[in-house]
User: Which sequence fits this backbone?
């Protein structure tokens, strides 16, 4: 009997605690009055680390009353979440994987938003002398031939996908080589690692410019057509997943191609870095970019 | 070393100018981790006490499990909670992924075994005669438990500090279930990770200093309660 009574107090306390938790979630349910107000945007780290979304999203929210939950991960993870219906809309830069996703019916309405370019950066000493090499694949070949340290994102991000495509062009398989190291981190952190270890790495120009003041890396290879970095917005089909906020996703995607957002993209970063970080491309064709 | 100095200056600047974003982040950290610790206190102390006071088959196994739970890796908790509250997960209908509520749940799961393990040890550490004496004096079981809990106030407050310290400084689970959403689920630790990624080391250091300050203030207040002279 005594033990029973003791257990009863335990139950009472646990029940009180559970009530507290459920009370909290009820308060949450009451707060978001309009149905489907939340939009989950999964995107690449570069759009957040560069600060672009901090400007665009408040504009969108003020205009439409939606609440955007931005989850900044690599493009690979951003699309994996979309494939599971855990995301409503994606802003990513991994074209081959995007096209595959659309073909398989996991994404709709893929629209071009903007581009910038990838660059190969490395220490100013440039140990294997890649500076000035025109073709990015040739630069990678030189790095491999000289066994110079190359830092890879290694996280299935858009940048990592581009890097793998470039290695494929060279015919070299860098995986497992002593001079090839994978961080598994975002662009910003990978640049820091490359800077500390005096290694070469592939980066998007936007993140590089945003971090330039704190890292000892210089642009060594740029301007090659294969280094284009193209961002698309894609919606997760709402008919496939009942919980996906299709309307919200469409509203956000429409906003991204609107003149207002495109104008913001056009000038973003000019005051801080002296040059824009991204070039708006809504309505253009991929083939015409960089010309 | 320059960057440290810049960080300290930035921290002071953010604090004395009452930077609204930083204040909001700090307040949210305190609210989330405070609530999580409070919940863990209820569950941890009650189950810890129940296990300490009762003898049952497999008690040592249960205690071993609780003690292992004290070192529960936050990322494991984060991953587990995320999968549970995915839209496609068993608790998806709650729609709480990427909210402060998800962070409270994850942090409560991290803090509960810590509080449980310490309170279990604290109650077990009391002289067994004390229990017998109270029961012979006619105390009810509930009264006895209450006195025991009061007697172990010192280690129990240590449990609160350990639990709170564990969750306010935790980043893995918070970023996974909270998503680090600006003005909504961004706390001191997740903001520090993000600012480091952005290369804003001065702000990252400033946030770290504010986090340490906050932890110190909370622990100082709890220590005041803990070390207060007991009424004679």
Assistant:
């Amino acid at each position: 009997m005594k033990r029973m009574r003791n257990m009863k107090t335990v139950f009472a306390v646990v029940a009180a605690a559970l009530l507290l938790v459920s009370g909290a979630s009820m308060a949450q349910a009451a707060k978001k009055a309009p149905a489907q107000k939340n939009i989950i945007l999964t995107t690449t780290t570069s759009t957040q680390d560069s600060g672009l979304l901090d400007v665009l999203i408040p504009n969108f929210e003020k205009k439409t009353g939606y609440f955007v939950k931005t989850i900044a991960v690599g493009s690979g993870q951003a699309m994996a979440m979309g494939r599971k219906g855990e995301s409503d809309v994606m802003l990513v830069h991994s074209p081959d994987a995007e096209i595959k996703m659309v073909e398989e019916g996991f994404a709709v309405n893929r629209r071009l938003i903007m581009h910038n370019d990838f660059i190969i950066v490395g220490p100013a000493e440039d140990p294997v002398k890649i500076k000035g090499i025109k073709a990015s694949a040739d630069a990678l070949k030189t790095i491999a031939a000289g066994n110079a340290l190359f830092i890879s994102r290694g996280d299935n991000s858009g940048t990592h996908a581009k890097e793998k495509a470039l290695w494929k062009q060279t015919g070299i398989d860098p995986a497992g080589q002593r001079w090839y190291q994978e961080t598994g981190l975002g662009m910003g952190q990978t640049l820091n690692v490359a800077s500390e270890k005096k290694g070469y790495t592939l980066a998007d120009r936007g993140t590089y410019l945003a971090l330039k003041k704190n890292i000892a890396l210089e642009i060594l290879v740029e301007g090659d057509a294969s280094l284009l970095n193209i961002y698309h917005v894609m919606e997760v089909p709402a008919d496939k997943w009942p919980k996906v906020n299709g309307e919200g996703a469409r509203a956000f995607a429409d906003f991204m191609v609107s003149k207002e957002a495109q104008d913001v993209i056009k000038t973003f970063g000019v005051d801080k870095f002296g040059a824009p970080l991204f070039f708006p491309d809504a309505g253009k064709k991929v083939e015409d970019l960089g010309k | 070393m320059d960057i440290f100095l810049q960080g300290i200056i930035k921290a002071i600047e953010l604090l004395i100018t009452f930077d609204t974003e930083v204040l909001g982040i700090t307040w949210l950290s305190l609210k989330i981790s405070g609530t999580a610790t409070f919940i863990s206190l209820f569950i941890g102390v009650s189950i810890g006490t129940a296990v300490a006071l009762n003898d049952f088959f497999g008690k040592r196994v249960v205690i071993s499990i609780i003690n292992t739970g004290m070192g529960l890796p936050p990322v494991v908790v984060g991953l587990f909670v995320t999968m549970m509250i995915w839209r496609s997960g068993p608790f998806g209908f709650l729609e709480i992924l990427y909210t402060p509520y998800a962070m409270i749940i994850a942090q409560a799961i991290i803090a509960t075994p810590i509080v449980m393990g310490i309170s279990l040890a604290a109650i077990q550490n009391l002289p067994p005669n004390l229990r017998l004496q109270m029961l012979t004096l006619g105390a009810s079981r509930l009264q006895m438990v209450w006195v025991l809990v009061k007697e172990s106030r010192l280690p129990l407050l240590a449990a609160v500090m350990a639990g709170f310290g564990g969750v306010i400084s935790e980043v893995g689970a918070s970023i996974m279930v909270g998503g680090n959403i600006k003005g909504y689920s961004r706390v001191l630790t997740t903001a520090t990770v993000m600012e480091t990624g952005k290369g804003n080391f001065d702000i990252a250091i400033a946030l770290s200093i504010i986090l340490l300050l906050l932890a110190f203030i909370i622990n100082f207040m709890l220590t005041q309660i803990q070390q207060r002279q007991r009424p004679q």
Observations:
- Chain B touches chain A through 41 residues (CB under 8 Å).
- Chain B has one domain: 2-226.
- The two ends of chain B are 52 Å apart (CA to CA).
- The mean pLDDT of chain B is 91.
